[in-house]
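ugh ok so i messed up the first submission bc i forgot one of the chains. this is the corrected input, ALL of the components this time, i swear. 846 residues overall. if the numbers dont match what u have on ur side tell me asap before i send this to the collaborators (the ones from the other lab, u know who)
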Amino acid sequence: MKIRRIGIGALALAAASALVLTGCSTGGDTPSTSGSNTSIITANGSEPQNPLIPTNTNEVGGGKILDEIFAGLVYYDAKGAPVNDVAESIETDDAQNYTIKIKPGLKFTNGDPVDATSFVDAWQYGALLSNAQLSSYFFEDIEGFSYDADSPLTGLKVVDDTTFTVALTSPKSDFPLRLGYSAFYPLPKTAFEDMAAFGENPIGNGPYMLAGEGAWKHNEKIDLVVNPDYDGGRVPKNGGLSIVFYATQDAAYADLQGGNLDVLDAVPDSAYQTFESDLGDRAVNQAAAVFQSFTIPARLPHFDGEEGKLRRAAISMSINREEITKVIFEGTRTPASDFTSPVIDGWTDKLEGADVLAYNPDEAVKLWAQADAISPWSGTFQIAYNADGGHQGWVDAVSNSIKNTLGIDASGAPSPTFAEVRTAITDRSIQTAFRTGWQADYPGLFNFLGPIYATDAGSNDGDYSNPDFDALLAKGSSETDVDTANKDFQDAQEILLKDLPAIPLWYSNVTGGYGTDVSNVTFGWNSVPLFYEITKG
Amino acid sequence: MAGYIFRRVLQAIPVFFGTTFLIYFMVFAMPGDPIVALFGDKTPNPAVIEQLRQQYHLDQPFIVQYFLYIGGIFRGDFGTSFSGEPVTQILARTFPVTIRLAVLALIFQSVAGIAVGLVSGLRKGKLFDSSALVVSLILISLPIFVIAYVAQFVFGVQLGWARTTVGPGAPLQDLILPAIVLASVSFAQIVRLTRSSVIETSGLDFVRTAYSKGLSRKRIVPVHILRNSLIPVVTYLATDFGVLLVGATVTEGIFNVPGVGNTLYQAIIRGEGPTVVSFVTVMVLLYLVVNLVVDLLYGLLDPRIRLVK
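and heres the new structure output, hopefully the right one now
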């Protein structure tokens, strides 16, 4: 009698567990095809934060996928130089009016033609205010753009199937360079019928395409196969690409070590010290187009005018960048010598005034004393940062460096979340210096300067304004010769080195690695491997 | 019995409204604007922010947002994530994975924990008991991420016995290692619990009576000792199952399990109100159900505990 009751209990529990187990596994399992084709490259990624619509993707997780399934007018080679992809030619006489011809006969993977209209319509869609696209600001230089009301881009005109013209509101010599960014990708006609559905199963014209409907398995991976119709400079040398989404970089790194992942483009902090010995010559550690700094808004007391310049220079010279990048980052950062990045065409470490970025405690103390003569210092120098981003180590190191050199109170000011610190920066309620970083959208010097330091620019969080700097940017933008333009941008940076609206710290390196059975792994200027070149087996 | 269950279900209704309201309020009160954070280190144009706020009803006062959300739930619409995916789909995708992981972990910890605990209790003070004590103390005092990383490195990377992370579709064989890790801490608790309970029961009068009646040890141990020692263990297992069901954020993160804990963590980071609230609501309901089942199980194990008055 008693035994029976236990028996029933145990039996019921076991049966229930079995039911749950089988019920769930039939629901979750999916037929796997990757086993049959050995040349599928697996790479790490993260779940896209937005639907896969080119103009609505501004983060790495989605951008990495879009760059493989779309072909824009140009693409960037490993060094960041633009190469025509869909474009036949991009011509201008004045850096303001462009005539773009595209290659004839190209098709999206659903058969829709890639023509002038598919570009113009996509850009119009991306720019329209009520579509609220995250990358709409990329179109702000095109005539007709408005942040205040829905307004068509009148500067775009379709001439014929393979030609369209672009009129900008002012000369922008680097406009052709921008055209490789995902916001400028074309869209097939079907996209406009139901953009939400398109964002889930995007149809592109790039080297790869989605492996059928539902290839995007949310929070797990996205499977891409080679697009046989792609006819450009990025024809894949492998059978496809499986981008696996990882919640943490540590998990991705473990998979690389365990042989489940072919290519990794983000080594976790915890492995900085060991990854180069773990992976040997399969480790990657090279400079990338990411610039890190902290911004001191001019509205802070003591940081305006002549006094401000002296204090900014003193703070900059009191930071031992060499040591911090070595000790805190294990050599995965490169001390900054300008406001851009070494992977960008036109970068130089020979700018006049760049010595302000070198550690020079004696000079720093002298400058700080001169500033004190104008108006004595009081209070604490603080750098605000988000505590959820792994910034505490270097902020503390930088604060200590300042504190020890100048003998003032300096510390980090953590906020719990990224959203909180960004909101305070955006609404200007922040009353300290704050961490700033810039990852380039396209490989041009202007992209590191215009959006951040030009008067009233979108990301000018420190409200910096210097007419001479603005004039040099405008001059550079109106040059049609790239080298002449870069010279102007370098001159503009020399002004920044005097004013120091932000204190440059270092360039982030791309840290990554790859498995034993893949080869030809090159990392591009934007820290993403050139997947199409990778071979396996 | 039916009346009792009915009353418990009725009680769930205020709990449902209370939790959704509280959680919604907490997400709302989180400092910082999630829309601004969508733009990373770049500063968006105010007009674009305004458009996006309208799209997600973030421009409305809190109470309006809450009722819009609740209204949606009753139409089967739990809202959408920033990536445009309906939250119902996210729920349907992640809960099965976590349930599978939780059931596996529960099986491991109950089978191993009760067995080791029983033997320890019967051989109190012997070598087996002392070693079990040492092992369980170590497991209890180690943070779970240490166990997880070590297991991942040793069994995944070095020995290659298991996949380092959980592969696509979260198949059962990939979930074994994370489930063992997840079970390890509770395993130790169950060993301690079963052991002390078995020792206590062994000393009771009815056990001595059973021995003096001449019953065999084979019969006394499972029927008289084990069964009567199980009540605290079952309580522990059941609450633990509830805890496992609502997701193990740390373990899921380390093994990249596309389950509840992992997904919820990322939604919190992004400030996605609808996702967070829907997940927590489902968790609360699950917890209520598990607790009800536990209360019903008591009656089965010990007829002296009666639910119906």
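quick check: Chain B has two domains: 2-74, 90-305. that seems consistent at least. Chain B touches chain A through 71 residues (CB under 8 Å).
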